[in-house]
Amino acid sequence: MRRELPQVAENEILRQQEIMRLVRAMEARPQSYFIVSMGCQMNERDSETIAGMLEEMGMVASPVREEADLILYNTCCVRENAENKALGNVIWLKELKKVKPELLICVGGCMPQEKGMAERMKQLYPFIDLIYGTHNLYRLPEYLHRVLKERTPVVEVEQIDGEVVEGLPEVRKSPFHAFVNIMYGCDNFCTYCIVPYVRGRERSRAPEAILEEALMLRDQGVQEITLLGQNVNSYRGGGAEFANLLYRLDRLGIPRIRFMTSHPKDLSDELIAAYGELRHLMPHLHLPVQAGSDEILRRMNRHYDKARYMDVVERLRKARPDIGLTTDIIVGFPGETLEQFEETMALVEAVRYDSAYTFIYSPRTGTAAAKMPDDTPASVKSERIQRLIALQQGVTSEILNGMVGGRQTVLVESVSARDERSVGGRTPRAIMVNFPGDESLIGQFVDVEITSAGRNTLRGKRIEE
Ligand code: SAH
Ligand code: SF4
Ligand code: F3S
């Protein structure tokens, strides 16, 4: 079932804007902020909106977390370790608050949206000033205003499905790369996954709003956009399908277009064709497979089997021979046998991904898989994932080594963390290349000759014309 939910009424946004002005005028408000963004790109994008609202309220970004007057954690709960990381961080802030009592601690994002979690956090961590969820992010100004006026902790999590909110302020992280939301939520209910419970039902933005945003970004000099959604293939904005949206975006002339994430079950023929036709659509696709066994895929509620997945891969490569594929894989799903795991290994060998994100299954309360019997010992799961990582590492090395001697166009992103005389950026296939150069190249396209391959990245040198 797909629905386009009504937009949050314009006067609600006007009300929040009014509150932002009120907070700005308050004397005893925080002067600076620091946001810790955890989890996926959706959260990163939300953090840009949060930053926009905090700046409208008069705060400036603090370069150092400990020095900020307000610290906000935008949390993730997709796996248990993500949660533990968030909680560990928050507990540490309790100490900081002892020496800096005026510090405001806010926790938002997916974790408080979990059933019962916000109340638990409130009890266990009474020093948190504000706890809010994903659906009511746009009301952050109102909540902060209350915290500042009443000086008591505020906990606000709404259980209604989120709506599409337009017109909030934002502070974009990068001047040349931008994330653009095209849809929110997820209706797939893969049995292991908590995202549908914390992000609500699928809802698409209107194509006009997306195109308008992309146009504005292009005019600001953005060179690459990444369209975001939990499952972009089920985008249905104003009746338009995802491939149709891509064709329209391609005409704007932004040099690079990417998107994530794509669900294999409804990757359309039109999208495959788009890979052969669109100039600006980059030859990379993140196509999470999760497992190579049909039985496991069925119990994951993924709605495709290995044959269907391999067929999609084959057709994509036909349409775009240079396409690079990446994936997500879960090891140790409840009841996974050795044979079923070997099927995942065989699939990884057959597809030849550029790289893979591998996870040990983590039970999430409230999901269907959390109730399935799971008798595989943790040590066995850990051996399996090690084998999988080693296999993928071998494939990655072969692919990267095959690129040595070739030429790549790199969009430079940053100065290299390891060597300040080098810069790093991505090829069209999204593979990271480091090469000698300085900060002035950031945001530019540079032609590079690949000279060697590392574990997950390439090294090169600039081709001087
Ligand atoms: N919407 C995206 C991904 C969302 S979460 C998609 O459908 O592909 C990112 C990845 O986390 C998933 O692809 C999956 O591999 C992994 N993941 C999700 N829930 C998990 C769990 N309970 N345990 C381990 N990995 C999980
Ligand atoms: Fe989770 Fe599946 Fe939705 Fe992805 S498609 S967010 S894995 S439920
Ligand atoms: Fe995590 Fe929420 Fe994203 S649970 S993966 S931050 S949608």
Structural class by sheet pairing and helices:
alpha/beta
Please give the number of β-strands: 21
Distance between the termini: 54 Å
CATH topology of the largest domain: pyruvate-formate lyase- activating enzyme
Largest sheet: 6 strands, parallel
Amount of beta strand: 15-25%
Poorly predicted spans: 1-5
> What CATH architecture label of the largest domain applies?
Alpha-Beta Horseshoe
* Rg (CA only): 23 Å
**What is the typical, i.e. mean, pLDDT?**
95
Number of domains: 3
Percent helix among the residues? 25-40%
The dominant shape is globular
Q: Total number of helical segments?
A: 14
Q: Please give the order of strands in the largest beta sheet.
A: 2-1-3-4-5-6
Explain this structure.
The protein has 465 residues and is of the alpha/beta class. The chain has 3 domains: 10-156, Rossmann fold (3-Layer(aba) Sandwich); 177-401, tm_1862 like domain (pyruvate-formate lyase- activating enzyme), CATH 3.80.30; 407-462, Beta Barrel (OB fold (Dihydrolipoamide Acetyltransferase, E2P)). It is 36% helix and 21% strand. The protein is built from 14 helices and 21 strands. The protein has helices at residues 10-25, 41-56, 80-99, 110-113, 117-124, 140-150, 195-199, 207-219, 242-250, 269-277, 294-299, 306-319, 338-351, 378-401; strands spanning 32-37, 60-61, 70-75, 104-109, 130-132, 154-156, 177-181, 183-184, 203-204, 224-228, 236-237, 240-241, 256-260, 284-286, 324-331, 355-360, 407-415, 422-426, 432-436, 445-453, 458-462. The strands form 6 sheets. A 6-stranded parallel beta sheet has the order 2-1-3-4-5-6, with helices on both faces. Strand 20 and strand 21 (458-462) form a beta hairpin. Helix 13 (338-351) packs parallel to helix 14 (378-401). The longest helix is centred in the C-terminal third of the chain and has 24 residues, at 378-401. The model is unreliable at 1-5 (pLDDT under 50). The structure holds S-adenosyl-L-homocysteine, iron/sulfur cluster and FE3-S4 cluster. The site of FE3-S4 cluster has 11 residues, from helix 2 and helix 7. S-adenosyl-L-homocysteine is lined by residues 78-79, 192-193, 195, 230-231, 261, 263, 288, 290, 328, 330, 359, 361-362, 364.
